[in-house]
Design goal:
- Helices cover 39% and strands 19% of the residues.
- The chain is of the alpha/beta class and 362 residues long.
- It folds into two domains: 139 residues, Nucleotidyltransferase, domain 5; 177 residues, ATPase, nucleotide binding domain (Nucleotidyltransferase, domain 5).
- Strands 3-2-1-4-5 form a five-stranded mixed beta sheet, with helices on both faces.
- The radius of gyration is 21 Å and the shape is globular.
- The protein binds 5'-O-[(R)-(carboxyoxy)(hydroxy)phosphoryl]adenosine and zinc ion.
Length: 362
């Protein structure tokens, strides 16, 4: 294929992937060169739509994806300055996620593949969060030429997973939540405290003026050393709020010490996440820790994990957090993950189905 040079392509033709992500409440498309360079990264968030329900409303989410997908794709292509014929593949999140949301992205990807005779690469959303560290200035290179084995902590509204990454595409799930995801717990606690949705940023904000030592939430006891549980803390928060008058007709008693509860809850969650992550890093003797997912935007989690990894004896472990725009769901990370899958020869059939319960390394 001859490609004219005035179309934004470098002389050596990069591997260019159009990536699509619609697993939850973000309609996103991105054009990624060589799994690293972000040519465009468009995210249409449905936050305002779901705010009125205090969480993601699946039926509304899939309808909003249907409305947004074509304009988002057009914008991603035009911002990238990438003609359709310069694409090498189309990548899309095939799972895990909401079925009705995943279907919209997967069908859009198939339509483009069909029209343009391009290969389809289905991507695990969780793999995407890991590969957010390969983007842009590729912070992963700070771990040296070979960053493996690597430990990934994925903490989002739908996930809390510790994944051992032995090599590109080689994963072992070593820990997961037995009940709520960390972000989900933030969202639920925020609702109990009369704070907005999404709950994580709202809790982080109000916790700034709170005393994190005022309430102690007991550490969950679990059979497996690297598993997590957050529902106990969530229930404990409910009891504490009730002790101070609780909520009546949607109105929280002014006696409830919202900032102290938020700060104490945030501190406990950060402490549990850090403790297990550090123990796993130790056991598997990893070269570094990468964190991804919406909760990785949390400043207290960042500070605690950096402190623990930085003071580890005999030598510190490097921890990498994605830039804030790549913490939450986006298609750039799907393009980065797809790049390595594409290089390994992964090509999916056009009858590829969505996999709402897809696991990683299990
Ligand atoms: O990765 P993400 O955008 O979507 C999912 O795949 O779920 O994560 C969204 C989640 C929400 O639960 C939100 O409350 C949480 O990430 N979150 C945070 C913060 N920012 C977003 N949690 C704690 N602190 C934050 N700063
Ligand atoms: Zn996510």
């Amino acid at each position: 294929m001859t490609i004219p040079m005035d179309n934004g392509l470098s002389e050596a033709h990069p591997t260019r992937i159009l990536a699509i992500e619609t697993s939850c409440d973000e309609t996103a498309a991105a054009v990624i060169d060589d799994g690293r360079r972000i040519r465009s990264n468009v995210v249409a968030s449905q936050i305002t739509l779901h705010q009125q329900y205090g969480g993601v409303f699946p039926e509304m989410a899939s309808r909003a994806h249907i409305e947004a997908i074509a304009p988002v794709l057009q914008r991603a292509m035009s911002e990238a300055g990438a003609p359709w014929e310069s694409l090498d593949a189309v990548a899309v999140t095939k799972g895990p996620g909401l079925p009705g949301s995943l279907v919209v992205g997967v069908n859009a990807a198939k339509g483009i593949c069909l029209a343009r005779d391009l290969p389809l690469v289905g991507v695990n959303h969780l793999e995407g969060h890991i590969y957010s560290h390969w983007l842009d200035d590729a912070p992963i290179t700070r771990l040296g030429g070979n960053p493996f084995p690597l430990l990934a902590l994925i903490v989002s509204g739908g996930h809390t997973e510790l994944v051992l990454v032995r090599d590109h595409g080689s994963y072992e799930l070593i820990g997961y939540t037995v009940d709520d995801a960390a972000g989900e717990a933030f969202d639920k606690v925020a609702r109990m405290l009369g704070l907005g949705y999404p709950g994580g940023p709202a809790i982080e904000q109000v916790a700034r003026s709170g005393n994190p030592a005022r309430f102690k939430f007991s550490r969950p006891r679990l059979d497996k050393p690297f598993n997590f549980s957050f529902s106990g803390a969530k229930t404990a928060v409910l009891y504490v709020t009730r002790r101070f008058g609780g909520m009546t007709d949607g109105k929280l008693s002014p006696r409830v010490p919202v900032a102290d509860i938020a700060a104490s809850f945030q501190e406990s969650v950060a402490e549990w996440l850090v403790e297990k992550t550090m123990r796993a890093a130790e056991l598997y003797d990893v070269k570094g820790i990468v964190v991804g997912g919406g909760v990785s935007a949390n400043r207290v989690l960042r500070e605690r994990l950096n402190a623990a990894a930085g003071s580890r004896q005999p030598s510190p472990i490097m921890v990498l957090f994605p830039p804030l725009t790549l913490c939450t769901d986006n298609a750039a990370m799907i393009g980065a993950a797809a790049h390595f899958a594409y290089l390994r020869g992964q090509r999916d059939d056009l009858d590829m189905d969505v996999l709402p319960d897809l696991k990683i390394g299990a």
